[in-house]
């Protein structure tokens, strides 16, 4: 007997079981039972009882054909056929809800008529009561269990109407049969309700799965739309290093590097024209970014050249691992390819420009220095004029040194000659040189380095560093503000700090302040001219000394540059700790 459950309309239906490995055979109509029409389902629910009645009829036809002479028996068979026909003909959909539940009640009547027709001898036919009992037990009828019990009890009393006394067997059937049917009715009712609950839960979960699936498809479409719209090539790898996703830009890169439009977008084919950063050396597949990412290597800015002249392009590749769900092993990698051809061309053009302009400036500056030297050698030169010419000569010499440094920095030949140097003298000279510019803007220079501060440094180069830092601090500070210079020794190193209370920078600008030709947004808004090269040269000088330079800044609150240099061996400074801001020292109010 298959499990039975109830549709929302109340019709008992055969519950479709999930296909399990050990239960592969199913009735033809079992899987699609819920989609059948109401009349068809009513007929199918009545068929088990009708089938058993056919068996009973066959047995009587073979074993006791005289039973067919009994009009009640014949009437019972006829009524079963009529009821089955009614199940198939009556338009149950048009009748009031659950009107078809009259069928199991009529089954009780027909079974009682059969028992009355055959007599007490065939009282075991009472087992047919299980069909209407189960049908009623799974229905939505409120008094279904009570009706099933009453129908069973009434049917069990029918054989007692026949002549003869009440023996122990009849009494046992009278008591036991209703009790058994009541137990079956309660059990089926509980199971049916549980099945209904599980079916409702499955329906809810199925709806949620469908919703999540639809949302996942929408997100997938959005992801593909986003990755296809960016101008960066993308290759995604799974944990085994297999390519799972590429975008249109990456396909375009593959076409540029390949020999046809079916070139591999991961740029790993050996025949693809891919060259190292020098643009000449062929890059082997095992050294390419996607192969390295598949081997769980991180790639940071690997420069590649794709294709041949004149259509070749330069791309910068970056690869990062994706953390797996367990947090231990990587779940895959993402490789990004960015076209940097224009950026490289711009950098080359800037380098050519700086080299050319430096050469062009050197010629007239050399002439200026020559004439200043001749003027200073004049015997009748007034002392005041001579002093002014000496300042001009000194600054022209410094300008010539700066131009030479630009050329050397671009060529990577900046020369450093470190020696034990008292940075306090370098600071004083730099403050003196910057005094006139600071006075013109009414900016105070607060020199707090009034003690010996010895470091292993090239004094001329460190003069350039301080000139650049002081010049920037004055340039990007408002009138009436203060620029402070502090110095101390810490952990075997000499530290200089130049702080202003000027415009400051946000975090994005602060991270790029040492990039070549970069100028902060506040500097651009201020309208102050600059090339964006001073801090590049400054950082180069400090790092060639084996030191470091750091910057701290906040928009509208000022900027602080901190230079750390190795202290000179065998020398010590009286400044052992960092002085407090605003503490005593040589204060030069440059406004006068």
UniProtKB/TrEMBL annotation:
Region entry Disordered, spans: 566-592
Keywords linked to the UniProt accession: Kinase, Membrane, Phosphoprotein, Transferase, Transmembrane, Transmembrane helix, Two-component regulatory system
Chain ranges passing through the membrane: 42-62, 68-92, 99-115, 145-165, 171-192
Listed InterPro entries: HATPase_C_sf, HATPase_dom, His_kinase_dom, HisK_dim/P_dom, HisK_dim/P_sf, PAS-like_dom_sf, Sig_transdc_His_kin-like_C
Entries under SMART domains matching the protein: HATPase_c, HisKA
Gene source species: Arthrobacter mangrovi
Origin superkingdom: Bacteria
GO terms for MF: kinase activity
Stated name of the protein: histidine kinase
Keyword check for Metal-binding: no
Pfam families referenced in this protein's UniProt entry, alphabetically: HATPase_c, HisKA
Reactions performed catalytically: ATP + protein L-histidine = ADP + protein N-phospho-L-histidine
